[in-house]
Design goal:
- This protein is mostly beta strands.
- 11% of the residues lie in helices and 36% in strands.
- Strand 3 and strand 4 form a beta hairpin.
Length: 129
């Protein structure tokens, strides 16, 4: 499980803190936060999974940006579900010079060949009202 902390001014990515431990420890850390998304190792929401919780509520139009370029999930991510108001998402690969790919809405059953096991950044957010 990961907890997305409040981003520092002038930074691109939302800081992620990994929470490990027994079920009680993880449940306690999740209890006061908002579930933002669930990551999956395989397409169609299969394999290992990990939840990301937000320290400051569900998504707004600015949302959360996660840097997976040096994390395990950047090397294995194949699908994900978004929760709450987090509905729109974009991916970027770990390749230099790439920009975010197309905007996706809702759960993503497969990230596509270009992003499968090759995610650098993931941006989730709410639709503008």
């Amino acid at each position: 499980m990961f907890i997305a902390e409040k981003a520092k001014p002038g930074t691109e990515a939302t800081p992620l803190r990994e929470v490990c431990g027994d079920e009680t420890t993880v449940a306690s850390a999740a209890a006061e936060r908002t579930l933002l998304m669930t990551l999956y190792e395989h397409a169609d929401f299969g394999g290992d999974s990990s939840d990301i919780y937000g320290d400051y509520g569900t998504c707004d139009p600015q949302g959360y940006t996660f840097d997976f370029s040096a994390r395990y999930w950047g090397w294995v991510l194949s699908s994900y579900r978004v929760h709450g108001r987090c509905w729109l998402s974009n991916l970027d690969t770990r390749s230099p010079g790439m920009n975010y790919g197309p905007t996706r809405a809702g759960p993503v059953t497969y990230v596509g060949d270009a992003y499968n096991d090759n995610v650098g950044f993931l941006w989730i957010r709410a639709q503008a009202i």
